[in-house]
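Usage example:
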Amino acid sequence: MNLISIFLSAMLIDNIVLMRFLALCPFIGMSVDPGKSIGMGLAVTFVTVMATVVTYPLYIFVLQPLNLTFLQILVFILVIASLVQLVEFYLKKKVPSLYASMGIFLPLITTNCAILAVTFDNISKGFNLIEAVVYALGVAMGLLVSLLLLAGIRARIKAAPLPKFMQGTPILFVATSLLAVAFMGFSGLIK
Amino acid sequence: MSTILITIGFSLALAFILGITLGYFKEKFNVEKDPKVEAVENSLPGVNCGACGYPGCPGYAEAVAKGEAPVNKCAPGGKAVADALAALMGVTASAVDVVAVLACQGTKDKAGVKGDYVGVETCRAAKLSAGGTKLCAWGCMGFGDCVTVCQFDAIKIGEDGLPHVDYAKCTGCGLCIKECPNQLLHAVPRDRVGSMVICSNRAVVKASVMKNCKVGCIKCGMCVKACPEQCITMVNGIPVTDYEKCTSCGLCVEKCPTKCYHMLENITGAKRKAVVEA
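Running the assembly step on the lines above writes:
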């Protein structure tokens, strides 16, 4: 598999949110407006790529030789949590407005299943380091794209007259499922 | 055995490295926090519920410290937190302690019903399907949507078919006020004194009100004429009291032919503050 097809399949065909239904919490929570979506998308991108760069060598060169592969969940979560903390420090210093608007969702990236899924995929799919990084980038871009799409849809939903039982999160899940159906169209993109 | 030792050693080493790295970056990206923000944040409950409309308690604390947000937005904290924040910020808290008052006294024996209602037993459903169960379109249906929504167990449907608010338990959260499809519950300041019309019928035809309910406001205007302070005005078919002027003389209550005027003192148990003569 060449790098472009890894990237595209991670971003569109196996879109982390819309095809695998992971990371729905930030997807619903942070798609309030496009600005927040991009901020969240970039934060996740950074954490995903960094987590890949750290966990992949850690697994191959430390966990495997030491026969500690059973520790991978624990170790990976530890690494991801530290990286999220790092992003939090950085945003607090450099972009306080984004830090404030992300609120609780920033520390919640720690337990974002999309990132953990990527680090596991890197190993189970037998990628080398470069492929793993490209894959991580693809997944993160997929999350960013779907966040932006939903943010756009939400702008329209805000103006729509909705029955009471549909207001808020229910209509977002309906929109999400329709988006997922649309994304199924990508499934024949790469053979 | 060696596996356990390796595991322990490896975990310790990893935790050590990550800890050192994070400590280093924390120093590098250190932000001087405004002590005022910190003080405000410490007075907040810290539940991050978002009821104030800001992203969590830290977001609200920052807005308060900057003077952008009012100090009375914290719903879980209530008056205590509003007072604490007001003291910190040097402003007076405008948090008004309110309670919900039902503006309808169409009990089972006093207000006529359209017929037997067979359907989903909620006020909202009855309102949607049949336009309410009472002959009076504004009448309380008494299915207790307000009871269901109340988080404080403060409302009960009584024997008479109307909800009764326990003012000792009511926190003025406003959930029932939003829920009532007939908008019969009103937020009234707990310490408000004076007269209030316990009826919401806005039909202008006197005869229809009388036929539908024995205790409906018939828009006769006796209260307006009776008030010595001229503090009662008709607004959309319902007399409204101006509490700035009302002296709780009780003349409107006496004059009302259908007994729909009541003193708030008798409903919520509010006490008129003693007037200190200068």
